[in-house]
């Protein structure tokens, strides 16, 4: 399952610094001037998963293959971007094919780093970005509406449905609300997704704080968290500067550095977990001597759907799944003892996969 998260924000809020830390590369040039990111940088990131290491150790797996998530570092938006200000709205298209948007808000004060609006106000920053995305959505919908209305009047049922959803989205946007706040039925979910609305994408507000506030945040990040709750979004506190410093350290050095700061884990781990939570995702595992591997599926997926993530033929020819809960696999030190103890279950097509399940599929 390919997952992409767009990192957006005003210039100089720490987007590229965060991206560099996420990908542990210098692919995105982090500099103290607006628009240093011109082309969208993309980076594949391994999803932190301690359970995978435990499984590999028990099974003697030669290779560990974590799940992956792609981050897209989009150039800094400015007020008026939807009308061509700054670098224009060409970058809005880079967001459309993503699964979620991470809004980075500057929640630190540093006179050495300029702010494009000459003030530190994360809520105002978020409102500028959201407004530009909303304006871009409105322009897109209003451009499509006349043709849809014409076809709907001619009896085209698909156009009538799309027109209904377009009007629903425009009602939300005209009321100053992002499209994600609209109530859409399950039956209309697919057609709603096809509208490709920027403000319909799940949103994660990332408060970029100074080093001393990396554990609990500060007054500015508290405001961002409150705004996220209001906007039907998730939020997380992170210090991009700390993350960039520990990105180049090995695991032991990272642990020692984080301990000196009173932190239990890198903030990036929390960020990725929040992204998974936001998108309603979970993990299951396949384990053997050759490899231990993590697979990403939707919460609520059945065993055949989980098998289909490995290969579509697995889903089409699904017979059953041999399943062991993660805790049982670890406690009994592997598949053989789990089978003896009756903890290995044969599950059919209706089985809803649980997070952490260790699975083996039988198929035609």
Description:
- By secondary structure, the chain is α/β, with parallel strands linked by helices.
- Helices cover about 40% and strands about 20% of the residues.
- The protein starts with a strand and ends with a strand.
Cα-to-Cα separation, first versus last residue: 22 Å
Count of DSSP-assigned helices: 14
Q: For the largest beta sheet, what order do the strands appear in spatially? A: 2-4-1-5-6-7
Task: Say how many strands there are.
Answer: 12
The structural class is alpha/beta
Features:
single chain; 3-stranded mixed β-sheet; 364 residues; 14 helices; 6-stranded mixed β-sheet; alpha/beta; 40% helix
Summarize, please:
With 364 residues, this protein is an alpha/beta fold. It has helices at 15-23, 50-59, 93-96, 122-153, 157-174, 189-194, 219-230, 240-246, 251-260, 267-279, 303-310, 312-316, 326-331, 335-340; strands at residues 4-8, 41-46, 63-65, 68-73, 100-106, 203-208, 234-238, 281-287, 291-298, 318-324, 345-347, 358-363. It is flat, with a radius of gyration of 23 Å.
């Amino acid at each position: 399952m390919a997952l992409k998260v767009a990192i957006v924000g005003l210039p100089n809020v720490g987007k590229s610094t965060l991206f560099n830390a996420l990908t542990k590369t210098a692919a995105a040039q982090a500099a103290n001037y607006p628009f240093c990111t011109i082309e969208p940088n993309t980076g594949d990131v391994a999803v932190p998963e301690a359970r995978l290491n435990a499984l590999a150790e028990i099974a003697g797996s030669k290779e560990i293959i974590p799940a992956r998530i792609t981050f897209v570092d989009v150039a800094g938006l400015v007020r008026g971007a939807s009308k061509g200000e700054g670098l224009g709205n060409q970058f809005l298209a880079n967001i459309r094919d993503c699964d979620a948007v991470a809004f980075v808000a500057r929640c630190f004060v540093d006179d050495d780093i300029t702010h494009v609006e000459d003030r530190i106000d994360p809520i105002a920053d978020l409102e500028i970005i959201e407004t530009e995305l909303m304006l871009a959505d409105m322009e897109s919908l209003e451009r499509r509406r006349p043709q849809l209305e014409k076809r709907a009047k001619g009896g085209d049922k698909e156009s009538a449905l799309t027109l209904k959803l377009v009007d629903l989205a425009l009602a939300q946007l005209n009321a100053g609300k992002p499209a994600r706040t609209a109530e859409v039925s399950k039956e209309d979910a697919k057609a709603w997704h096809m509208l490709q609305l920027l403000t319909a994408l799940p949103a994660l507000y990332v408060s970029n704080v100074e080093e001393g506030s990396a554990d609990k945040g500060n007054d500015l990040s508290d405001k961002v968290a409150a705004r996220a709750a209001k906007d039907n979004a998730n939020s997380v506190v992170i210090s991009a500067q700390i993350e960039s410093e520990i990105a180049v350290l090995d695991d032991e050095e990272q642990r020692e550095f984080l301990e000196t700061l009173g932190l239990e884990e890198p903030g990036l781990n929390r960020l990725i977990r929040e992204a998974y939570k936001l998108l309603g995702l979970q993990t299951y595992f396949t384990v053997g001597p050759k490899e231990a591997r993590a697979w990403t599926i939707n919460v609520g997926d059945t065993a055949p759907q989980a098998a289909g993530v490995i290969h579509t033929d697995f889903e089409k020819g699904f017979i059953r799944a041999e399943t062991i809960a993660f805790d049982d696999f670890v406690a009994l030190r592997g598949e053989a003892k789990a089978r003896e103890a009756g903890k290995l279950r044969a599950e059919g097509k209706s089985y809803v996969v649980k997070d952490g399940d260790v699975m083996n599929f039988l198929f035609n």
